[in-house]
Design brief:
With 85 residues, the protein is mainly alpha-helical. It has one domain (2-83): Winged helix-like DNA-binding domain superfamily/Winged helix DNA-binding domain (Arc Repressor Mutant, subunit A). It has four helices and two strands. A two-stranded antiparallel ribbon has the order 1-2. The radius of gyration is 12 Å and the shape is globular. The two termini are 13 Å apart. The mean pLDDT is 81.
């Protein structure tokens, strides 16, 4: 699931924001896609604008990607802990 979180966050961060673009690129069943995006919304890593069907990274989501790309953070916590609720 962590890999799906990272892939989804990366796609949103790289400009693939529309629901259908993200769902198509991560290639998972729609129920799993809904579960992933729901969890990311709950964790406040992304926000969703219903009028245009787009997801955007929040500051928390940007920090997660930076942490993953950097291999850790300034407290020595691995990025894997960030995907937990």
């Amino acid at each position: 699931m962590f890999e799906e979180f990272v892939k989804t966050l990366s796609l949103i961060g790289s400009g693939e924001q529309t629901v259908w673009n993200i769902a198509q690129k991560i290639d998972v069943p729609i129920t799993r896609f809904r579960m992933i995006t729901s969890k990311l919304l709950d964790l406040k890593y992304v926000r969703y604008e219903a009028h245009c069907f787009k997801y955007y990274l929040t500051v928390k989501g940007e920090n997660v990607l930076q942490c993953i790309n950097g291999g850790g953070n300034d407290r020595g916590v691995t990025p894997y802990i960030l995907a937990r609720p």
